[in-house]
Amino acid sequence: MKHWLWIGILCALGPMLFAEPYFLLDSQTEWEEALYGTSPEQNKIKPAMPHEWTEYMLQREEYLVEGELPAPSIFLPPELHVYDGGGGGGGGIWPEEACLVMAWGEPSLPENNYASAWKFEYGLDPDLRNCTLKLTVHPPAAIVMVSFGLTDINGNQCSWTWNNPANIPTAPPATTITINTANVPGLGLNSSNPPAAAFAFNPNFDMSQVASVFISETFHNTPGVFPPPVPGGSQFFYWNAWDNMQVTPNNGGGGGLVNTKSFVKYSQPPVEMADGIILGWDELSVYIPPRMIMADDFECKDERPITDIHWWGSFQGWTQPTIPAWLLPKAFHIGIWTDVPKGADPQFPGFSHPGTLVWENYCDNFVWNFAGYDKDPRSQMENEACFQFNQLLSQDEWFRQPPLEDPQQPRIYWLSITAIYDPQYPPMYPWGWKTREHFFMDDAVQILQVRHPDGSLWPPNPLQVGKSVFAFGQPLEFPIGVSWDLAFELTTNQAPPCSSLSADLNHDCKVDMPDLAIFAQQWLMTE
Fold first, then answer.
1. CA pair distance 236, 4, nearest whole angstrom
2. What own/partner pairs with CB < 8 Å and gap ≥ 24 does 160-164 have?
3. What is the mean pLDDT of the chain?
């Protein structure tokens, strides 16, 4: 009979692509692929060997920076399998999520501390600097210690240790552990939330070349004292549970622009919550049925051309940090429209909306990068992968605003972005534009009909510039009456007319609080 420990971690591994640091293990299928992969490239989760655990413990003791380590433990090799979740049985202690199960120990063991461990191997050595790692832990009674470590390509390590119940309480409820690698090693125990009981850091550890993740746990075996049954079974042995571990980029909701020498003309990025999650959902915007185009208004303050366009979105239901070729649309249609102010259209007096299409771009050479995971405020669902898309325009494609009659009266335009798919192959995960809390002027708008000179109500491909006009749509609200916008940024390769203002760090011709925020974020940074 075995002692059972199940662990569920959330990690961004797209079907076994590990060139980047971001990884996600969430569903039963993802766990099984990582544990039972048919090739070494797929099989990323493995039981720790005794010599690996010994080395981990030695470095933890030798390079202890802060805190106190628990009493020594006896290592027992683990056996691993996947639990399908569901939470059935166990008096409500079992989590609902699919996860990894680690089994070790015998009921006849004498009273002592026993430990075991498993590891996740990247297969490469990605850069984990400036990332956020998250784990949710459900420790029942008898688990006395949980430890999480990183090992670089040269075997150097850093690690965090939490005691139960002093640092992480006995479940339920579960405890989410967050580690910001940008704070390592500087904040020591406080580089994690909740703070660790012990933090160890080998001064030779290289966060830019992390090779593996190491999970170790300790239980105290007391003869005659039995914990709840193991998740997915009836045995009364010691166990622990983990779910939702994720590695995401810090500030994933903003930045990462293709052309770092661009100047901002208008910026309306996603809203990133305190825990690194992006607040919003993907609002469907596709040319195929049900045929809808999302659009949002923006302010154009000067005559510099728009040379770069950046926007954020997701593929409905997709959770991985990589985008396989079959998932991508064949192109995006990007349009700029005139503005019809609220009350100016007798047919739709209650909201402002796009007017006439004055510029378009058929974008089939866009690039993308993973931005993080989002949280849908409508359902509180998490873990849909969010991506930033970037389009660098050729000079003959730039959008050039006509001269302003009054520089104090900027023009309002509308930006529309919609995904174009081959109608013969409807997407399994259709694209949606990422929403954000209200930022500028009126709600974003869903365009449902576009009128052309011939009377047709849906745009051909491409739209007819200067002839297509808004015919029918509705504002984006949640709940009813509460405005929501869409996440995008417009940039230019030309310096602003007020470039002499050296403290104007966001190039909006004003020295204000946003500039101070940029200055504070970059304080003491070097290149």
1. 9
2. 160/191, 160/192, 160/196, 160/198, 160/199, 161/60, 161/67, 161/69, 161/70, 161/196, 161/197, 161/198, 161/199, 161/200, 162/192, 162/194, 162/196, 162/197, 163/70, 163/197, 164/139
3. 84
Same domain, 136 and 168: yes
169: which DSSP letter? P
Domain identity same for 351 and 379: yes
Residue-wise pLDDT for 359-380, tens only, equals 999 999 999 999 999 999 998 8
Q: Say if 256 falls within a structural domain.
A: no
Residues 488 and 510 in one domain: no
pTM as predicted: 0.76
Please compute, for residue 21, the number of CA atoms within 13 A of its CA located in the half-sphere on the CB side: 24
Question: Which amino acid, residue 58?
Answer: L
Task: Count, in order, helices (H) and strands (E) of the chain.
Answer: 3, 31
| Reduced 3-state DSSP string for 224-235 | CCCCCCCCCCCC
Specify whether 514 is located in the same domain as 488: no
User: What is the helix, strand, coil percentage profile of the chain, to 5?
Assistant: 10, 40, 50
- What sign has the CA pseudo-torsion 484, 486, 487, 490? negative
State which residues form the domain around 527: 501-527
489 lies in a domain? yes
